[in-house]
C-alpha cells in the first residue's frame, strides 16, 4: 500500500515577517481595534482598505496570535485576585522616628491672614511684634532677608511610603489610584481586598446557602430557596 502524502505544513506568520505597511496596520489595529481607523493611521488613503487588510490570511493570523498573548487564563486571574486579596498596607508604609518641624511663610498662613483681617490690615502690614505677640516668639522664625515663617506642626513620628520596598515586592500593581498634592504628599488607594476575597471565595465555593443535616439515614441536604412574592389577594 503506497504511503499517503504528508499533509502540508501550515504556514507560520509573524509580525516581523509582514510587509512594513501591513505591520504598521496590525500595530494600529491593536490600539484601536477598528479596521477603518487602523487603515488611516497606517497611512492608507482609503480607510475602506482596513476591511480588506483585516481579512488577509497573514494579517488575520498575526492579529490572532498577538491577541492570544493578552488573554488572561483562569489560573492567572486567580493569582491576580489572590495578590489583591493579600494586599497589606504595612508593605507600603514606614514610620520615621525623626522629629520634624514644619513652617509656613507668614503671608500664606491662614492665622496670619485672619489676624490681619481682624485688624483691618493687609498681612504685609503686620510687624514682628504682631506675629510674636499672637503666635509666640518660639513659633515665629525669620530669614536673613526678613521673611517671616510660622510654625504649624511638630511631628514626633512621620508615616512615609517606602516605594523602593513596594517595587522590590512587586506590589505597585496593587495600587488602584494615586494622587500627588502640591505640597509633595502622596495619597494612594489599593484595589478592594474584600471584593477580591469574595471572588476567590466563590471560586472555591466557600459561600453557600446549602446546609447538611445529619440523620440516622445519613446526610440530608436542605437547600434554602429565596423567593420574592408580592402581596396576596387577601391583602389587596
Q: What strand order characterises the main sheet?
A: 2-4-3
Q: Termini separation (Å)?
A: 85 Å
Q: Main beta sheet: strand number and arrangement?
A: 3 strands, antiparallel
Count the strands?
9
Please give the share of residues in helix. Answer: 25-40%
Uncertain spans: none
Question: How many whole angstroms does the radius of gyration measure?
Answer: 34 Å
Number of helices: 9
Give the rounded overall mean pLDDT: 82
Report on the structure:
The chain is an alpha+beta fold and 236 residues long. Among the domains are: 50 residues, Orthogonal Bundle (Arc Repressor Mutant, subunit A), CATH 1.10.10; 41 residues, no CATH class; 57 residues, no CATH class. 36% of the residues lie in helices and 20% in strands. It contains nine helices and nine strands. The strands form four sheets. Strands 2-4-3 form a three-stranded antiparallel beta sheet. A hairpin with a 5-residue loop joins strand 3 and strand 4. Helix 1 packs across helix 2 and helix 1 packs across helix 4. The longest helix is centred in the N-terminal third of the chain and has 13 residues. It is elongated. The N and C termini lie far apart (85 Å). 10% of the residues are buried.
Amino acid at each position: 500500500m503506497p504511503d499517503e502524502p504528508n499533509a502540508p505544513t501550515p504556514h507560520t506568520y509573524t509580525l516581523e515577517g509582514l510587509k512594513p505597511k501591513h505591520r504598521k496596520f496590525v500595530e494600529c489595529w491593536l490600539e484601536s481595534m477598528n479596521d477603518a481607523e487602523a487603515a488611516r493611521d497606517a497611512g492608507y488613503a482609503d480607510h475602506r482598505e482596513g476591511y480588506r487588510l483585516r481579512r488577509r490570511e497573514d494579517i488575520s493570523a498575526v492579529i490572532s496570535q498577538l491577541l492570544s498573548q493578552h488573554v488572561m487564563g483562569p489560573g492567572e486571574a486567580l493569582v491576580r485576585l489572590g495578590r489583591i486579596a493579600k494586599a497589606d498596607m504595612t508593605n507600603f508604609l514606614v514610620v520615621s522616628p525623626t522629629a520634624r518641624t514644619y513652617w509656613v511663610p507668614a503671608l500664606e498662613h491662614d492665622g496670619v491672614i485672619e489676624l490681619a483681617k481682624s485688624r483691618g490690615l493687609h498681612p504685609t502690614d503686620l510687624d514682628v511684634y504682631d506675629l510674636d505677640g499672637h503666635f509666640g516668639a518660639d513659633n515665629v522664625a525669620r530669614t536673613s532677608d526678613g521673611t517671616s515663617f510660622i510654625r504649624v506642626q511638630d511631628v514626633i513620628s512621620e508615616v512615609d511610603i517606602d516605594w523602593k520596598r513596594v517595587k522590590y515586592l512587586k506590589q505597585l500593581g496593587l495600587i488602584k489610584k494615586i494622587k500627588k498634592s502640591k505640597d509633595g504628599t502622596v495619597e494612594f488607594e489599593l484595589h478592594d481586598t474584600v471584593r477580591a476575597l469574595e471572588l476567590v471565595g466563590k471560586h472555591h465555593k466557600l459561600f453557600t446557602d446549602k446546609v447538611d443535616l445529619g440523620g440516622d439515614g445519613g446526610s440530608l441536604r436542605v437547600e434554602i430557596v429565596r423567593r420574592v412574592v408580592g402581596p396576596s389577594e387577601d391583602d389587596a
